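Q: Joint fold for the lines below.
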Amino acid sequence: MKVAVITFPGSNCDRDLAVAFGQAGAEVVRVWHKDTELPAGTDVVGLPGGFSYGDYLRCGAIAARSPIGTAIAAHAKAGGYVLGICNGFQVLLEMGLLPGALLRNAGLKFLCKPVTLNVASTDSAFTSGYAAGAQIRIPIAHHDGNFTADADTVARLQGDGRVAFTYAQNPNGSDGDIAGILSENRRVLGMMPHPERAMEAAHGSADGRALFASLIGAFVPG
Amino acid sequence: MKMRVIVTLKPGVLDPQGEAVRHALGSLGFEGVNKVRQGKMIELDLAETDPTRAEEQARAMCEKLLANTVIESYVLEPLEG
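A: Joint structure:
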């Protein structure tokens, strides 16, 4: 299976994301923001963390409207998989592929530390490798991770099992302790924590591996 | 003609930055500041000279890019000169 990892000017987790997908067994193609098409046969698009376009205007706003953005939206709308991490999550919200928005952290500080997440839904290719109710350690590194949406939207996400991860201790003021959410077809995941930074013991946690392994596993026939 | 765009968080949306500014004002001795809401101002210098069409253009720009209408609202002000 083939993964396209997108690089915007200011992306800084793109290589880590490519390595994580590669370790999990995917063929990884790096794609530049000025490209207008995804490589033929792309199964999964990876939107990395970082500061795309310097976070100008709003985090992820310019990247969402970049030349490759149209191709990513078409891929998602055709049922393709997309994983957006941190700035990638912000881009997905700005594209309208996931509901809600991310505000400045409630405490106004840039937060960079490992946190404990609850796996709130195992019903997706991204989370099926975790045990129901599992707690995992994954680092966060963001200034604008305060998830907000109107009460109806939050209730719908929770009711439909579209909250993939919640924070065990809410670090940023997110509504419903939400750390990551799924699209209606459960093939687009946006999350603030960085699973690609928790891939081996030397990282302090290897709890991110199951996410990449289960996603890649979804494409193995049989 | 020139258009000014003011983008602010919608009334129900918490504004942690505005709240921090309010606290700072209080610590400087400015009393009675009940609320601070922070936003951004964008000036557009448009080739369009007709005010109605210029406003239409600016509105489309706001809807597509300048504001995130999930959390932000905007107002347009035509500028002299």
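Q: Anything notable?
A: The mean pLDDT of chain A is 96. The interface with chain B takes residues 57-58, 61, 65, 93-94, 99-101, 103-108, 146, 148-150, 173 of chain A (CB under 8 Å).
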